């Protein structure tokens, strides 16, 4: 959650993020440690805050230590840059591996993300293992929140890496079998579903947008069900969110979705605070070429630009702009920390490298388009009036008011692309629609890239395989 970190969080982090079972010998008999900290509601709440802190990650431009986790701040490399949406400006370093579909098991960004999200899972498990200290009136809420965040982490990991280790409780450091044995994706999805059902039943919509909520749990679970082809269950959840009594709606101005934080379209976001070394983000600054870098990353592909130019409507000008320093290169600007007076986008931070733009995980436009997908249910097209109504709302807001009479799967995928461009959905959408192989193969051939079917999963980080003494196996297609 977006708030000043308590000293307690810093203290607890020193203990709970370590992989070691003991720190000193003889054992501490006074002071705070991982075994004696959780005794009150307040202490459990700091543990929950620490889960959010793990997703938030550290600002890479403010703290460059290689052993720190950057959480969601590096997610765009693993998602947008592995699709047909974005690329680096000049094929720099490890980032270039993503845009060329040549990711190596030694890639440090992949290892960072994998490590970050397993650390999030660890933090969630630590809270869940200590719920006995919570008061009866708070216990179910704490469990629901921790399980929502654990499910969110696992959902990202299983879609990116496939079969992965399942760790659903705090384990001993020497429990190598649990730490490194890959479990089938079906087993991972069973845990995700169970966790999210607990979250749906135990959460409310009364908190801030950067905190777990019932609607957020319903929305993520609906996306899980769409991924698994369980369309009817997804539709029911989405229509629950769409009930007017829930209070969610599209913003009238597309720009306000991203620059008026906490608006009625946002369902769940990762919160950041500007000009704070601990709570700011650097990813939006890295997408530019105006923060002291010689080249930016996550630039818009010509393919994505063409889609936005053709079908973006009023979203296009608020999604990308031409790089002022190099013609023919285009920057992502959905999160623009140094503002743009021509677009009416305010400066959100006096230091763009310490940006405070929240990262939106789920918003109402996504819900409406998932509603169309749930009704389509894998069919080539639909003329359902309910699907058309949801689809039309998103199009109308974009200024594309021509009446729709039917929707094909390809039209829905294109609408998701231009509405949710650069929000880390494109790769997952392509896979879920069973079009990733054909679309990315064509994109790769047209641009001289190296895509093959095995590139739909990332490599398991080589450093993890080494730590496991080769118990952890590698994905096909990677040496």
Characteristic key phrases:
479 residues; mainly alpha; two-stranded antiparallel sheet; two-stranded antiparallel ribbon; 10 strands; 44% helix; disordered N terminus; cell outer membrane; SusD_RagB_dom
Folded structure, characterized:
Residues 1-18 form the signal peptide. One of its GO terms (cellular component) is cell outer membrane. InterPro entries: SusD-like_N, SusD_RagB_dom, TPR-like_helical_dom_sf. It is found in: Cell outer membrane. Residues 76-226 form the SusD-like N-terminal domain. The protein has 479 residues and is mainly alpha-helical. The chain has helices spanning 7-16, 41-56, 75-78, 95-99, 108-129, 136-161, 176-180, 185-202, 214-227, 231-242, 256-259, 283-286, 302-311, 364-376, 385-397, 409-419, 426-432, 436-447, 462-467; strands at 86-87, 164-165, 182-183, 266-270, 299-300, 320-322, 330-332, 359-363, 381-382, 407-408. The strands form five sheets. The chain has a two-stranded antiparallel ribbon. A two-stranded antiparallel ribbon has the order 2-3. α8 (185-202) runs antiparallel to α9 and α9 packs antiparallel against α10. The longest helix has 26 residues, at 136-161. The protein is globular. The two termini are 40 Å apart. Mean pLDDT is 91; it is low at 2-30.
Radius of gyration: 22 Å
Gap between N and C termini, in Å?
A: 40 Å
Secondary-structure-derived class:
mainly alpha
Main β sheet profile: 2 strands, antiparallel
Q: Give the rounded overall mean pLDDT.
A: 91
Low-confidence stretches: 2-30
Question: What fraction of residues sit in β-strands?
Answer: 5-15%
- As laid out across the biggest beta sheet, the strand order is 1-5
Q: Care to count the β-strands?
A: 10
Shape: globular
Helical proportion, percent range = 40-55%
Number of alpha- plus pi-helical segments? 19
Q: How would you spell out the order of helices and strands?
A: HHHEHHHEHEHHHHEHEHEEEHEHEHHHH
Protein name: RagB/SusD family nutrient uptake outer membrane protein
Keywords: Cell outer membrane, Membrane, Signal
InterPro entries: SusD-like_N, SusD_RagB_dom, TPR-like_helical_dom_sf
Main location: membrane
């Amino acid at each position: 959650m977006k708030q000043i970190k308590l000293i307690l969080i810093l203290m607890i982090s020193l203990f709970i993020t370590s992989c070691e079972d003991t720190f000193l010998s003889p054992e501490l008999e006074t002071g705070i440690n991982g075994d004696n900290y959780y005794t009150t509601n307040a202490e459990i709440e700091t543990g929950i805050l620490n889960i959010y802190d793990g997703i938030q990650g550290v600002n890479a431009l403010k703290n460059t230590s290689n052993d720190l986790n950057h959480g969601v701040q590096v997610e765009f490399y693993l998602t947008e840059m592995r699709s047909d949406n974005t690329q680096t400006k000049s094929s720099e370093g490890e980032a270039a591996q993503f845009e060329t579909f040549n990711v190596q098991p030694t890639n440090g960004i992949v290892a960072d993300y994998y490590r970050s999200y397993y650390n999030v899972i660890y933090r969630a498990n630590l809270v869940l293992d200590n719920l006995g200290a919570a008061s009866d009136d708070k216990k179910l809420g704490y469990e629901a929140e921790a399980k929502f965040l654990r499910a969110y982490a696992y959902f990202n990991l299983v879609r990116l890496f496939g079969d992965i280790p399942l760790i659903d409780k705090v384990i001993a450091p020497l429990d190598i079998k649990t730490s490194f044995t890959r479990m089938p994706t079906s087993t991972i999805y069973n845990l995700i579903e169970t966790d999210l059902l607990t979250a749906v039943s135990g959460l409310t919509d009364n908190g801030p947008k950067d905190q777990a909520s019932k609607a957020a749990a319903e929305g993520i679970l609906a996306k899980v069900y769409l991924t698994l082809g369980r369309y009817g269950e997804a539709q029911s959840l989405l229509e629950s969110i769409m009930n007017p009594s829930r209070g969610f709606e599209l913003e009238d101005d597309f720009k306000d979705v991203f620059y008026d934080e906490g608006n009625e379209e946002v369902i769940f976001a990762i919160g950041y605070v500007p000009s704070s070394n601990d709570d700011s983000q650097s990813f939006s600054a890295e997408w530019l070429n105006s923060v002291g870098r010689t080249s930016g990353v996550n630039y818009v592909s010509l393919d994505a630009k063409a889609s936005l130019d053709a079908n973006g409507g009023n979203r296009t000008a608020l999604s990308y702009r031409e790089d002022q320093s190099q013609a023919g290169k285009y920057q992502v600007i959905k999160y623009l920390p140094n503002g743009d007076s021509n677009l009416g986008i305010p400066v959100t931070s006096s230091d763009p490298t310490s940006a405070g733009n929240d990262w939106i995980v789920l918003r109402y436009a996504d819900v409406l388009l998932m509603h169309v997908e749930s009704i389509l249910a894998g069919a080539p097209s639909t003329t359902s009036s309910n699907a058309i109504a949801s689809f039309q709302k998103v199009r109308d807001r974009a200024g594309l008011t021509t009446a729709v009479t039917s929707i094909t799967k390809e039209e829905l995928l294109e609408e998701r692309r231009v509405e949710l461009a650069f929000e880390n959905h494109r790769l997952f959408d392509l896979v879920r629609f069973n079009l990733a192989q054909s679309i990315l193969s064509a994109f790769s051939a047209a641009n001289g890239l190296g895509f093959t079917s095995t590139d739909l999963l990332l490599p398991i980080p080589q450093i993890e395989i080494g730590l496991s003494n080769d118990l952890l196996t590698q994905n096909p297609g990677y040496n």
